[in-house]
Amino acid sequence: MSNGATPKKIKKLEVAGASGDADESRDYDAETQKALEEIDACQNEIDALNEKASEEILVVEQKYNKLRKPYFDKRNDIIKRIPNFWVTAFVNHPQISAILDEDEEDCLHYLTKLEVEEFDDIKSGYRINFNFEENPYFENDVLTKEFHLGSSGDPASQSTSVRWKEGNDLSKKIKDKSGGKGRKRFLEQKTLFSWLSDHADPSADDIAEVIKDDMWPNPLQYYLVPDIEVENGVEGEDDGSEDEDDADLAEVEEEEEDIEGEEGGDDNLAEEDDEDVAEQEDDEGGDD
């Protein structure tokens, strides 16, 4: 938030306030200096209120996280009644689908529940749980990626080690398909499972943020994407374009028929000319 003075002038104001050196504030007249000091005092009050607001917002958020949890649990129970709900939602999500490999998409057919758990102290982190039924890919029932503050106070992350079944290690299959011989090239090709084990920069994990702040709060909107597009007239627009294509095709066919007709007319004229020449030659022969 701006306090109405340039950084250079702010620095002079702070130095003057700290040392009492009048030379540092010679750029200002008495009235301006007084106004700047009053603005600085107001800014301190605003900052104090902002800090207090953040603490109170945190308390409110914790309260409503507890109130929302039963509804999240109820929603997950209902989702289990819909086959392939989560894989459909993931495939329809633009950011998540962008990193999904075909084999990973097949694997997600066994995903039965997604859950995001925020810690009691929201600022300290959260975890994302992927619950799977028995599947041909790995032994784990739950795969988790957790974000928290490390011992240094910086963001850190950790995740479940995937226990792949014999011959079905998707990370190896994807690496082989990519044709990359080195680890660097494999890491550049981000996929769902490479994201799961990637802890290079937890503070900039876009996929985790998308799952926590977009997919988890309302997955239904992504499961229903095709139906929503139909309701918004997307299908009608497609139909319209098909009609236009049909009209263009008919017009081209008519033009081709006209061209063929003209060519046919030219042929007839040529035949008539040949007949006239033949008759003229017969007449001349008769005169002889």
UniProtKB/TrEMBL annotation:
What is the protein named? Protein SET
Protein family: Belongs to the nucleosome assembly protein (NAP) family.
UniProt-listed Pfam families: NAP
Which biological process terms from the Gene Ontology are attached to this UniProt entry? nucleosome assembly
What Gene Ontology terms describe where this protein resides (cellular component)?
nucleus
Q: Which domain of life is it from?
A: Eukaryota
Tell me which InterPro entries the record gives. Answer: NAP-like_sf (IPR037231), NAP_family (IPR002164)
**Stretches the record annotates as Disordered:** 1-30, 149-182, 233-288
Coiled-coil annotation reads: none
Q: Where is the composition biased (Basic and acidic residues)?
A: 163-179
Species annotation: Cryptotermes secundus
